[in-house]
Amino acid sequence: MNTIAAVAGHNETLRTGAASAPRRLTTLPEHIVEVISDSGEGAQRCGQSLGAIAARTGNGIWTTEIIPAEIQPPARSVAGASGIRIRIGSNAVTNGGDETDLVVSFNEQVLLGRVRDRELKPGAQILLESMWRDHRDPKIVESFAQTVEMLKSAGYRVYEIPLERECKALIADPRKGKNMFVLGMLCSIYSFDAKLAHEQVARTFGKKDAKVVSVNQGLLEAGFKWAEANLDFKYAIPATRSTSPQIVVNGNTAIALGVLASGMDICAMYPITPATSASHYLSDVFEKVGGIVHQAEDEIAACAFAIGASYAGKCAVTITSGPGYSLKQEGIGLAVMAEIPLVVVNVQRGGPSTGQPTKVEQGDLLTAIYGSHGDAPKVVMAASDIEDCFYSMITARKIAETFNTVVVVLSDASLATAQQPFSRPEFDANWLAPPVDQTPVPAGAKPYDWDAVTGIARRFVPGQPNGMHTLTGLAHDRGSKVAYDPDTNEEGLRRRSLKIVALQKTLQPPAIHGDAEGDLLVIGWGSTKGVIEEAVDRLRAEGCRVSSLHLRFIQPMQPGIREILRRFARVIAIEGNWSDRLEDELVDEDNRRYSALAMMLRSRFLVDVDCWTQSRGQPIKPAEVVRVLRTKLEGEAS
Amino acid sequence: MSMPITQCLIKLHEEHHDLEDYQGGVPRWCSGCGDNAILTAVQRLCRDENLAPERTVFVSGIGCSSRFPHYMKTYGFHGIHGRAFPIAEGVKMARPDLAVFVNTGDGDCCSIGAAHWIHAIRYNMNLTMILHDNHVYGLTKKQASPTSPIGFKSNTTPRGSMLNALNPLTVTLGVTNVSFVAQAVDWIPELLYDIIRAAYLHRGFSFLRIIQRCPEFLPKMFDPWLHDPGKTLLLSHPDGLTVSPELARTYRNQIEHDPSDIDRAREIASDEDPIPVGILYRNPDVPCYETLRGAGQLRTTDQIRSGLETELDKFTIWPEDDAGKRQAA
Fold first, then answer.
1. pTM across the whole model
2. What is the CATH number assigned to the segment(s) A3-236?
3. Phi and psi for B34 in degrees, rounded to 5?
């Protein structure tokens, strides 16, 4: 869909107060809008509110936050862009989509960053704060004028908007209110119901006093009226309101709600971006139902605390991101060795080392599966959308306690802050952990009475009479006695590994998106699901014989994959992590480092799985995947 | 002595335990190791306090000291190096009804686990912590530990260690929320038992350092203290330790020290020769973290369900025809 064509020919700078021609209403199937500002100017709140209004209208939405690494990056800096992108569609939206169609920017510098990152569509509409044109600093004036000229000559349609001036009439410090003015403008542009918008502002500022709400509603109204009077374009994205209740939250909130719903009691954590907001929300609500969030002195302690709590009670959870996950490895190994249930959430960010704290990457898959020294088999799941973040926590808790093992749930910086509506979960008492077993242990029972087939042993919890034993990270026998003899060591390794196999037998084969056979199969995991499926749909609409498979479980892998792979001429993994490129001079088939999932699939199924990956810190775009898949399909044809 | 019949029935019903009820595996410590004395004293304490073995947990890290749980017949958690504190804290937070002990060594606590040690003091959870301080890494075969004396020749300090020994008592007494600090030596069993008992009875984080002989790697280290009772300073007080007349005849170097006096406690702790033995500090009024956090609450399915529904309500978009239902809910 080409929105540019729909409103072509409006490349002039808009001057305030100028009477405009009657607004042209264009109906669109979807649009991507972005609001960016310096940090602290409220672009995210504006965008989140817009997303909520769109969702309440019945539109599909996906929000993507643009977060600078610093709390207060320098004002008017290219790297300091803080904001949000909202993809609004007529139907359900499963990912952030391609480039932005319309952007509202509070200054020209933050905008430049987005232009340089190629995040704007060619010819995109830019609504730019005009105050800089008359700034007292001549350097700023010059920079602004130059940038606007550059943008125009690059084909963008720039509209200068006097945000500051308009807001000044209503509040003393427009920096604190522009965002709601912009929200009003955008509600007018996208033809959203003014009443819904008013309600959303009330909801957004609900915790503050009534005066704050009314001031912001005033700004909203002013923005709305200004756009009605001064802009010559208007869009409508038809919506169908769902007939069932929908929840709108981001992935981290969904994880926290999932912890609540799983019946887990204790979450131990240490602050780390981009995982912490899950614990923030959980800290706020967990105590109301008797749960506890413990902020430990470090990541290692958070993991050990969760292990101690799990050992003595119900399964506990620790939530972290890459660097924290690395620190937890020894603890995770202990939980595997001693067979203590534990849920570890890793909201992945860019790595290695401190990497890109606020940016998305899927770089931790192999460390999640193989991390920790020795053979430490554990379960690794990946949430693929916001709804999945919620249900993964319930599933993870259940698996951890059934198999007395560690379950790692991978999310990422993209899911962490993305919002997408999903059906309101209907509570099921079976989600909850059973009460802590305090019944006497039968005489003669052993703490590691491994089942010969499944490797599962009944766990003894402190408080259970007759169950006394000393659990240890040392090699041990069925009685939990330290044992160094070869047979006992091997038996422990074997039983712990068998549990993963046993879990695999309970899993369902993954559903194929598209036909069950064809020329090309795309495989992914985690947050790329919506992107891959959208790309596959676009190509299928053109008649390409391409399908996709998205793995929820990576360790163990769901059954049936081998048969699925066999039915496609070629297979490619698409992931947000690193893989060597064959165009690099020294890279060849013998030394190429494949992407994580591709490597897993190649080694397990002996299938020549290719990979295409991107680790630029930005969500992968469907158009890029389409391009890659098309090349792959053409390569096959030739 | 008469007793109401109901009391008799209660007494009859109560389980009483013997020392054997707490004796687990046969200790594999070297003969002459001070850990054996600590084990005996702790088993006596469990018996005398009638601790239910199934409701008692010994958590340890790694090192000679940390083999301790294996030799008890209670629940035990032999964890990983330096992490006994956070594991024990997790146990206590999940199950404040359990009696939880922590066994750690000078390497485990004062080196690799130092961060957790500081924060364990600050959390002040109701844990009884025993620092088995033998001034050396034993299990890894003789390396200098943070509490090794300066000049100590070990496998990693062949020309003698160059740093002054860390003083665990002054460190502990310097941390916010410290609520109990005591010191014992393995070679005076009577006081060892009394001090362990005081540590157990304190409600809060009891930091007990036990100076412990390592016959293998530091065989002569404490000879001067063993041969000269004057090199031991007994801290007595009506609110602290009371010294029996028999013991007082041998250990004449005594002072009265009020355990509520933290300034004096810090002074005493700073002086390492003579070795102070007794209760340096006790403040029963420091709140326990698990109490502050409301640990051990009973959670019902209905509670969780209504908590979750309340949260979901905040984020729900209701279908238009459901607006009435939402109002009702």
1. 0.94
2. 3.40.920.10
3. -65, -20
Q: Tell me the one-letter amino acid at A536.
A: V
| Strand ranges across the sheet with A419-423 | A419-423, A246-250, B316-317
Place of tokens 């196999």: A501
Which one of B95, B307, B317 has the shortest CB-CB distance to A246? Answer: B317
Q: Give the whole-angstrom CA distance, residue A178 versus residue B244.
A: 78
Q: Inter-chain contact A297–B119, Cβ cutoff 8 Å?
A: yes
Residue A386 CA to residue A417 CA, distance in Å, equals: 10
Domain boundaries, chain A: 3-236, 247-431, 437-506, 512-637
Strand-pairing partners, residue A315, are: none
Q: Is B301 in contact with A432 (Cβ distance < 8 A)? A: yes
The whole-angstrom separation of Cα B88 and Cα B93 is 9
Tens of pLDDT, residues B47-88 = 999 999 999 999 999 999 999 999 999 999 999 999 999 999
In which element (H, E) is residue A24 found? strand A24-27
Over residues B166-188, the mean pLDDT reads 98
Per CB-CB distance under 8 Å, the chain B contacts of A243 are 319, 321
Show the tokens assigned to B314: 């905040």
Phi, psi of A146, rounded to the nearest 5 degrees: -60, -45
Say if residue A73's pLDDT is above 80. yes
Res B327: pLDDT: 46
Which value does ipTM take for this structure? 0.95
Q: Give the residue from chain B lying closest to A305, CA to CA.
A: B90
Would the CB atoms of B78 and A473 count as touching at under 8 Å?
A: yes
Helix ranges restricted to H, A434-528:
486-506
Other Cβ atoms within 10 Å of A85 Cβ, number: 25
- 285-324 in chain B: CB under 8 A from chain A: 293-295, 297-299, 301, 303-305, 307-312, 315-322
- Check CB contact under 8 Å for B86 and A245: no
Pairwise CB contact (< 8 Å): A472 & B91: no
Looking at the domain that runs over A247-431, which CATH code has it been given?
Answer: 3.40.50.970
CATH placement of domain A512-637? 3.40.50.920
- According to CATH, the topology of domain B7-292 is Rossmann fold (3.40.50)
Measured between CB atoms, which of B24, B55, B304 is closest to A463?
A: B55
Enumerate the domain spans of chain B: 7-292, 298-329
